[in-house]
Design a protein that fits this description.
There is one protein chain. The N terminus is likely disordered. The longest helix is centred in the first third of the chain and has 9 residues. The chain has a single domain, classed as Jelly Rolls (Sandwich), CATH 2.60.120.10. The strands form 2 sheets. A 5-stranded antiparallel β-sheet has the order 1-4-9-6-7. The chain is globular and about 35 Å long. It contains 2 helices and 10 strands, in the order H-E-H-E-E-E-E-E-E-E-E-E. It is mainly β.
Amino acid sequence: MPNSKYRMQNLVPFLPNPSESSMSMHRPQAVPTIQISNDRVIVTEWRFAPGAETGWHRHAHDYVVVPMTDGELLLETADGERRAPLVPGQSYTRNVGVEHNVINPTEHEVVFIEIEMR
């Protein structure tokens, strides 16, 4: 699958600790769809069914997230878990090197657009 190969190159997967990752093995995977990929940006639509996750990864680029739906994300990080509310159209940015597993803890689909700057 082209999207999976691409994601492996730009989101570096890793397992931080076997005890932290054991629960994630039973979750469905979030679905990335690359909309644009050129020498300046990568634009990906992420769709999370209820309970879906990205898997642990490290971001290789600075990025902007534009939520398309409301909801909440559960972020598993090396420092523990935290929850992040999503408001449609209310963007936020993160720097290169962010390491986490992103999970949809809600009972409805969550969708956002991720824009990575190369």
